[in-house]
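During the no-cost extension, the postdoctoral fellow (Dr. R.K.) reprocessed legacy sequence entries with the updated structure-token encoder. One reprocessed record is reproduced below for audit purposes.
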Amino acid sequence: MIKLIKFGADFCAPCHAMSTILEEIQPQFKDQIQIEEVDTNTAEHDLLVKYKIRNIPVLVIEKDGVEIWRHVGTISKEDLESKIKEYI
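Re-encoded structure tokens follow.
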């Protein structure tokens, strides 16, 4: 199973847009991908350093604990679905 991690914050409008997209696609991929959202305001500093988070929103896809894709900024629902399908 792959994991998609979204790094964002409550004050960030693009982050909210990405959260909405993740909510919409989750049912489609529920048995194939684990989706996790990380609030950069409350996350441990070590986690942000590990993932080299400098801007938000950031989407990271991991497979077996290894980062295989990263996107900074917003992405359309269709493009994100396509990218997920590449890795599942």
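The chain has a mean pLDDT of 96. DSSP finds three helices and four strands in the chain. The remaining legacy entries will be reprocessed before the final report is submitted.
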